[in-house]
Amino acid sequence: MSTPSVPSARLTAEIRPGRPPLLPADAVRGMGWDEFRAALRGLVLEHGAVLVRGFGLANPADVEGVFRGLADGLMAEREAFAARSSYADGVYSSSAWPAAQQMCMHHELSYAGEFPGLMLFACLVAPDGGGTTGVADSAQVFAALPPALVDRFAREGWQLVRSYNAEIGASVADSFGTDDRGAVEAYCRANAIEFAWQPDGGLWTRQHRRAVVTHPVTGRRCWFNQIAFLNEWTMEPEVREYLIDVYGPDGLPFTTRFGNGEPIGRDVVDLLTETYEQHTLREPWQAGDLLLVDNIATAHGRDPYQGEREVLVGLGDPMRAGDLR
């Protein structure tokens, strides 16, 4: 993630227990764009995330302009685990995830060869209840986990195993932007993804990734992965049982494993989700809010919600896995 490029008056975000740093939009009104961008990105670098309240974003065109102005480029999503609607190049709806289900804390696309260094969220319609985008400091999560577990993942990394089919989860076209086999195979080879086409036409993939990285600017060691979120034990129990009955234990749409390929037990997944929960900060959405998240320093998730919810997402500051130590 880039550091602010121009000097600016220092902004101070409001720090409240259990809630993410908050900046009233009035604090930045009247700033020139370069000063505003530098000041806001400075807060993200300092705190890992910042919520700008009362920013007044009202439609996708407004959101796209702000996202493009704040990010060092927006990237197209590849290897999606759930479908999104596209509003513009690099500007998407939130992932299509059941409203009644928790979306576990994670670092966006931490399993991919290219991932966003900066996540941008804008709320156009706030839900009637719930639906917060929680954030958690990944360095604090790293420090709170049992050393032996951290050492194993730091040494071995982790694996993501996926099975794509026409009935459940993201399709090949959803994830790779194409269903052309040659293009999919070329992408997999370029991004160190093992793959195999199945007799029914489905696709099986496996990739090995690091679980712990060093932040490129702050130098802090961060727990950077989606080990818990994409593990089979975070599925609703009845959903997991149904999928195993229909597709078998090796045909789940996704699951994660230790770096050596061993299954990850429910006890480990529960420990990870509990540790995230202990460090999660939440602020209910209000229409017009803008949330910026350092995707390496900070994990994010989504709570269950009631009513309509429209939160747009930008994948900013594209980075390659090789950029991280």
TrEMBL record:
<keyword id="KW-0560">Oxidoreductase</keyword>
<keyword id="KW-0408">Iron</keyword>
<dbReference type="Pfam" id="PF02668">
    <property type="entry name" value="TauD"/>
</dbReference>
<protein>
    <submittedName>
        <fullName>Taurine dioxygenase, alpha-ketoglutarate-dependent</fullName>
    </submittedName>
</protein>
<dbReference type="InterPro" id="IPR050411">
    <property type="entry name" value="AlphaKG_dependent_hydroxylases"/>
</dbReference>
<keyword id="KW-0045">Antibiotic biosynthesis</keyword>
<dbReference type="InterPro" id="IPR042098">
    <property type="entry name" value="TauD-like_sf"/>
</dbReference>
<keyword id="KW-0223">Dioxygenase</keyword>
<dbReference type="InterPro" id="IPR003819">
    <property type="entry name" value="TauD/TfdA-like"/>
</dbReference>
<dbReference type="GO" id="GO:0051213">
    <property type="term" value="F:dioxygenase activity"/>
</dbReference>
<feature type="domain" description="TauD/TfdA-like">
    <location>
        <begin position="35"/>
        <end position="312"/>
    </location>
</feature>
<dbReference type="GO" id="GO:0017000">
    <property type="term" value="P:antibiotic biosynthetic process"/>
</dbReference>
